[in-house]
UniProtKB/TrEMBL annotation:
It comes from Lepisosteus oculatus. It is a single-pass type I membrane protein. The chain crosses the membrane at residues 366-390. It is found in: Cell membrane. Pfam families: Death, I-set, TSP_1, Unc5_NetrinR_N, UPA, ZU5. This is Netrin receptor UNC5. The lineage of its organism: Eukaryota, Metazoa, Chordata, Craniata, Vertebrata. Receptor for netrin required for axon guidance. Mediates axon repulsion of neuronal growth cones in the developing nervous system upon ligand binding. Residues 164-245 form the Ig-like domain. InterPro entries: DEATH-like_dom_sf, Death_dom, Ig-like_dom, Ig-like_dom_sf, Ig-like_fold, Ig_I-set, Ig_sub, Ig_sub2. SUPFAM superfamilies: DEATH domain, Immunoglobulin, TSP-1 type 1 repeat. One of its GO terms (cellular component) is plasma membrane. Belongs to the unc-5 family. Keywords: Cell membrane, Developmental protein, Disulfide bond, Glycoprotein, Immunoglobulin domain, Membrane, Receptor, Repeat, Signal, Transmembrane, Transmembrane helix. It comes from the Eukaryota.
């Protein structure tokens, strides 16, 4: 402890006298007097100089337990001592060294002291530990700067550590870092995959004053693990690593050029494509939005073959007994690579006229003329004989047809007759069915409902039974359904067929044809007359596959648009195409779709057999796409389905939205199930059967939603619920069904459940609004208002429109048009008519003229047109309308006849 008892007295002679007793850690007054008198006086030239410091003590840090040394050097000085925290340091703790400056001759004094950790810790928390030098000379004293002594440390935990990020290419990245607390403050550096980042060598990196790392423009090479490192004289700390992933969103390449038109003549299609390679998606970047293929209609100018004009009139007979005529290749003129006219454009022939020189006729000329006349007479007689024979054969053929039993073989006439229609002036034909009938060996399912159908004939062989039904005796009993399915499942190709008969129809058919229908699914198979060769009997089935039983390799934007339909057995010989009818759920706009018919091979792989709109008449398959139904003409039975690939984001599928709820509710919770399914009857039937098992009831009319190929999900939400009585248990504001779950068409019974809770069991009335919409697309809403305790509305009576027709109909009872009249229509319209009053006009009036090339490729175009009419109008067919079309064509001899009550 320093006690200053009196002021110092400085003598001008250069001696420093101590005027009072100085007790300085053991210093006595006599010691101070001895110091002052024993010090050599300074030279007279420097007696007025104050001491100045050559070295002053600096701030230092104590690391761990190592003491630190403070140094002080001054000249001219007679004494130097340290004072720490206001107290003089004991004389024994000083290490003093005296020297003389060789340049000036002045005395130089250097003093050092050691400071330990314990000394600093004694005042830790009160104030900073500091020390300074005090130097004396004969002229006075000087104080050095204060030097602070601190205990160095660096804590382990960072105040803030960097966090990993996923950023797009060229985006700015900021990684924050706050180092641990420490003395002296820690310096910060950054590591990239354990390598030191140098912002000087790589200017894309920048370290801010608050130690954050900035990547100015993220590059692919910047994908790495980044670590913040804090260090001072005590320790070096590393933060946890932050992973930065630089992703690249995909970008479209430029469109390729349009391909050549698919049609060499007339309307066709051309395509162009692009790829998601500019750039290619990397590190989880998004795939390009939009279509990779575009399709556009194109028209190619057809080649025009040259055509001859009419021959000109013969010229006058020339002197050489020759006359001439000519024609030109101008109707039309050959163009666009068409062929030139074949043949001569100039003809000549001998003539006889008064202008020719007269010559005497010899015996040879007379004989020649007589021979020519004889030949002409013979040819005339022969032609007359041929005409007479032909007429007799035709009359005999008509009699055979009228007397044949073809109309009574393989079907059951019905005793129910329709009311006599208006316009009964049409041609009435009463076929004679009293002749002996023939029967074939095969089983036929009876037709129980024939309302609206015409009984073709009535005769003694078909007298009604006592119960009002008719029967046809066959050589084979009807096949048992279970036995039929068992026999099918034993064949390897049919292992995947459903075992339940609800999804399968079957029957036995011969050349008269027939029809198979799977009730309430919109799926049917029409077997036209003469499709099965005469003498053959086939047992044919029709079934709809469950989607989970079939695995399809759909790629890109492809989606299933129809049920998967199987008919068979495959490999049977057909002489004409049969027609498969099934629903589809596309918007039927071929500008937005590329729709393909796929068929499964025997090996199980799926093959594209045609593209709708690009069918060739020579192909064994053809497709008629209607608004909601597809008709497939095929000469080969097998497994089929429609697959669509969207050509633009305007392509849309039709979804049917159906709401169900429990029939009764005895608890506080109440659930509403919203089904979002393809708008086809088979899917609706499946959902209705499922809800029947669950005890559900329909709570609103189904609605249709167009779901576009825009990659956006389907959202469902419930609104306007009376909160005083009900509340939703859904935590989020809405539910979502992912886009691809709906688009691929393979998910079964996609639905969302809204669980509601009523606050009291006495609350029974539920009123709310349920919305279903596609993000950035169209939507539908349901206004719900009913009583949860009792509701009498039917579940499925009106929704399915129950199909009461028999699953299998064989023979003429399966068709609207009687077989005999069908033959007469075909024979009348198949032959080309110069005024167009033939099968082409029939197709035009029935709005089927888009398929003229397909009809023309068949042996009987009229027969194929009537097959399609039968497939379209099985339930709603109106023979009066068809008769009116025939009357417009002008074919009175081929009008459809109506069998009235009096004529049967």
């Amino acid at each position: 402890m320093l006690l200053l008892l009196g002021p110092f007295v400085c003598w001008r002679s250069g001696l420093m006298l101590v005027g009072s007793l100085l007790l300085f850690a053991g210093f006595t007054y006599s010691d101070a007097q001895h110091i002052a008198t024993a010090t050599n006086p300074l030279p007279a030239a420097f007696s007025d100089l104050l001491p100045h410091f050559l070295v002053e003590p600096d701030d230092v840090y104590i690391v761990k337990n190592k003491p630190v040394t403070l140094t002080c050097r001054s000249t001219p000085a007679t004494q130097i001592y340290f004072k720490c925290n206001g107290e003089w340091v004991h004389q024994d703790d000083h290490m003093i060294e005296r020297t003389v400056d060789p340049a000036t001759g002045l005395p130089v004094m250097q003093v050092k002291i050691d400071i330990s950790r314990q000394q600093v810790e004694k005042i830790f928390g009160l104030e900073d530990f500091w020390c300074q030098c005090v130097a004396w000379s004969t002229s006075g004293t000087q104080k050095s700067q204060k030097a602070y002594v601190r205990i160095a440390y660096l804590r382990k935990n960072f105040e803030k550590e960097p966090l990993g990020k996923e950023v797009a290419l060229d985006q700015e990245v900021i990684l924050h870092c706050q180092p641990p607390e420490g003395i002296p403050p820690a310096e910060v550096e950054w590591l990239k995959n354990e390598d030191l980042i140098d912002p000087v060598s790589d200017t894309n990196y920048y370290i801010t004053i608050d130690h954050s790392l900035i990547i100015k423009q993220a590059r692919l090479a910047d994908t790495a693990n980044y670590t913040c490192v804090a260090k001072n004289i005590v320790a070096r700390r590393k933060s946890s690593s932050a992973t930065v992933i630089v992703y690249v969103n995909g970008g479209w390449s430029t469109w390729t050029g349009w391909s050549a038109c698919s049609a060499t003549c007339g309307r066709g299609w051309q395509k162009r494509s692009r790829s998601c390679t500019n750039p290619t998606p990397l590190n989880g970047g998004t795939f390009c939005e939009g279509q990779n293929v575009q399709k556009s209609a194109c028209t190619t100018t057809c080649p025009v073959d040259g055509g001859w004009t009419e021959w000109s009139k013969w010229s006058a007979c020339g002197a050489d007994c020759t006359m001439w005529r000519s024609r030109e290749c101008t109707q039309p003129v050959p163009g666009t690579g068409g062929k030139d006219c074949q043949g001569l454009d100039l003809q000549s022939q001998n003539c006889t006229s008064e202008l020719c020189p007269q010559t005497a006729s010899g015996p040879e000329d007379v004989a020649l003329y007589v021979g020519i006349v004889a030949v002409v007479l013979c040819l005339t007689l022969l032609l007359i004989v041929v005409v007479l024979v032909y007429r007799r054969k035709k009359e005999g053929l008509d009699a055979d047809v009228a007397d044949s039993s073809i109309l009574t073989t393989g079907f059951q006439p019905v005793g129910i007759k329709p009311a006599k229609p208006e316009n009964s002036h049409l041609l009435t034909i009463q076929p004679d069915l009293t002749t002996t009938t023939t029967s074939y060996q095969g089983s036929l399912r009876s037709r129980h409902d024939a309302t609206g159908k015409f009984p073709v004939s009535n005769g003694p062989l078909l007298d009604p039974l006592p119960n009002g039904q008719h029967t046809l005796h066959n050589g084979k009993l009807p096949t048992d359904p279970a036995d039929f399915m068992t026999r099918l499942s034993t064949q390897s190709y049919f292992k995947s067929l459903p075992r339940d008969t609800a999804n399968t129809s079957y029957g036995t058919f011969n050349f008269l044809g027939g029809r198979l229908t799977i009730p309430n699914t919109g799926i049917s198979l029409l077997i036209p007359p003469e499709a099965i060769p005469r003498g053959k009997i086939y047992e044919i089935y029709l079934t709809v596959q469950r989607k989970e039983d079939v695995r399809l390799p759909l790629a890109g934007c492809q989606t299933l648009l129809s049920p998967i339909v199987s008919c068979g057995p495959p490999g049977v010989v057909l002489t004409r195409p049969v027609i498969i009818s099934m629903d589809h759920c596309s918007d039927a706009n071929l500008d937005n779709w590329a729709i393909k018919l796929k068929k499964q091979s025997y090996e199980g792989s799926w093959e594209d057999v045609l593209q709708v709109g690009e069918e060739l008449p020579s192909d064994p398959y053809y497709c008629q796409l209607e608004a909601e139904t597809c008709r497939v003409f095929t000469e080969q039975l097998g497994r089929f389905m429609l697959v669509g690939e969207s050509l633009s984001m305007a392509a849309a599928k039709r979804l049917k939205l159906v709401l169900f709820a429990p029939v009764c509710c005895t608890t506080l919770e109440y659930s509403i199930r919203v089904y979002c399914m393809d708008d086809t009857q088979d899917v609706l039937k499946e959902v209705m059967q499922l809800e029947k098992q669950l005890g559900g009831r329909l709570i609103d009319e189904p609605q249709v939603l167009l779901f576009k190929d825009s990659y956006h999900n389907l959202r469902l939400s419930i609104h306007d619920m009376p909160r005083a009585h009900w509340r939703s248990k859904l935590l989020a504001g809405y539910q979502e069904i992912p886009f691809y779950h709906i688009w691929n068409g393979f998910q079964r019974s996609l639905h969302c459940t809204f669980t509601l809770e009523r606050l009291s069991l006495n609350t029974c009335d539920l009123m709310c609004r349920l919305c279903v919409w596609q993000v950035e697309g169209e939507g539908q809403s349901f206004s719900i208002d009913f009583n949860v305790a009792k509701d009498s509305r039917p579940v499925d009576a009106d929704l399915l429109g129950l199909d009461n027709s028999a699953p299998a109909l064989a023979g003429p009872s399966a068709f609207q048009i009687p077989y005999l009249i069908r033959q007469k229509i075909c024979s009348s319209l198949d032959a080309p008519c110069p005024h167009g009053a033939d099968w082409r006009l029939l197709a035009q009036r029935l709005q089927l003229d888009r398929h003229l090339s397909f009809f023309a490729s068949k042996a009987s175009p009229t027969s194929v047109i009537l097959d399609l009419w039968e497939a379209q109008h099985f339930h709603s067919g109106n023979l009066n309308q068809l008769a009116a079309v025939m009357a417009q064509i002008g074919k009175q001899e081929a009008m459809i006849f109506l069998v009235t009550d009096g004529e049967c």
